[in-house]
From TrEMBL:
This is Transmembrane protein 26 isoform X1. The keyword Transmembrane applies. Residues 299-357 are annotated as: Disordered. The gene is TMEM26. Pfam families: Tmem26. The keyword Transmembrane helix applies. InterPro entries: Transmembrane_26. The lineage of its organism: Eukaryota, Metazoa, Chordata, Craniata, Vertebrata. Residues 343-357 have a biased composition (Polar residues). The chain crosses the membrane at residues 5-23, 35-52, 64-83, 193-214, 235-256, 262-283. Keywords: Membrane, Transmembrane, Transmembrane helix.
Length: 357
């Protein structure tokens, strides 16, 4: 078992647990109730996941899902909800210390800085937890050992996507929840936090850069399966934008401007940005469908209406038993040989590479 892999797996999960405990501590300070320490028990799921991962996966993650990030969301999101719901009770006071530096030793100055951080500005703590939460999602995904089926190039692409996604999510929460009219409406706060929580569900999944894989289809009627296996990463990115992030964000902002009459320059700008992104994603989806339709026209007609993924027509499994009749065997061999010079071969070269486990 690789020692570096184990250290990365354990260290990353300890960072998650530490940040979650800090969030619970802030909740107990704001609510002035020690009973909220029970929220720290949610880290048990993360600890159990770490033990199982070390035992059965030798510290490495899964191909499609990051359970560590998912359980980290479970442990930290309730604390952030409580901090945002009780945002109005948080104070931000500026405590000015005496400027007689000659009479203050370095140790006392350090104590003063710590006290200022703890009690000086509670709203700054809430914003800081939001920011560090999103940063830890990106850094944690980077530090977690990658599983089988995902390359480092795909991981770097995923991290770049996470950076842009995290920035959009932070802008959405700050630009909406900082409005006094919204803070005074408890239903609006709950709705915005619900959309924010929904948008966080994209982080545990790694489907944005990994194609499912092109498997033979049993019938030409299963065209959606063929489309999904060929463009799964692109379709997942479009689905995230339309149904998880830009689409819900656009709906919330339109409701704020249209029904609640909350209008400012930043809200109008980000609404226009969401409209533009949704339109571009729909245009991209149309382009993919047209390209898929054009590629189907190059497929040869199969006997009995059978259709296969073009990229796997020539990759028959050599371990399969031969046909009972010599005529069928010769037919298969002829088909495999003729594919080398067919338009489908060039079509497969233009198709994005597929990562298989």
């Amino acid at each position: 078992m690789d020692l570096i892999v184990i250290l990365n797996a354990v260290f990353t999960r300890l960072l998650f647990v530490l940040h979650s405990i800090i969030g619970v501590w802030r909740v107990t300070e704001i609510k002035n109730d020690r009973l909220y320490w029970w929220l720290a028990l949610l880290n048990i799921f993360l600890c159990l996941e770490m033990i199982l991962t070390l035992k059965f996966k030798k510290g490495r993650g899964l191909k499609w899902l990051s359970p560590a990030i998912f359980f980290y969301l479970i442990s930290i999101v309730p604390s952030l909800w409580l901090l945002e719901v009780n945002y109005g009770t948080q104070l931000c006071t500026n405590q000015n210390s005496p400027q007689n530096d000659t009479d203050i030793i370095l140790f006392m100055k350090s104590i003063e800085i710590v006290n200022t951080l703890v009690t000086g500005c509670e709203t700054a703590w809430t914003l800081g937890l939001h920011q560090t939460f999103l940063l830890l999602l990106i850094i944690g995904k980077w530090l977690l050992p990658i599983g089988a089926g995902i390359t480092r190039d795909q991981l770097s692409q995923l991290l770049l996507l996470f950076v842009g996604t995290a920035a959009d999510i932070l802008e959405f929460t700050r630009e909406t929840l900082e409005q006094d009219d919204i803070r005074s409406n408890r239903v609006l706060v709950y709705s915005i936090l619900a959309v924010w929580t929904w948008s966080m569900l994209q982080f545990p999944l790694d489907l944005a850069v990994i194609n499912i894989g092109c498997h033979p289809a049993s019938s030409t009627k299963r065209l959606p399966c063929l489309l999904l296996c060929r463009y799964s990463a692109d379709l997942w990115n479009i689905g995230i934008s339309l149904f998880i992030q830009d689409g819900p964000f656009l709906i919330v902002r339109l409701i704020l401007m249209g029904h609640f009459k909350v209008i400012n320059h930043m809200l109008v700008f980000f609404t226009a940005k969401n409209v533009l992104v949704v339109m571009l994603q729909l245009y991209r989806l149309i382009v993919l469908l047209l390209d898929f339709r054009a590629s189907l026209q190059h497929q040869p007609d199969r006997k009995g209406g059978e259709g296969y993924c073009p990229c796997e027509l020539g990759d028959r499994n050599p371990s399969l038993p031969p046909s009972d009749s010599d005529g069928e065997t010769k037919e298969h061999n002829t088909t495999a040989i003729s594919l080398e010079d067919s338009p489908i071969s060039s079509e497969c070269q233009r198709t994005p590479s597929v990562v298989t486990s």
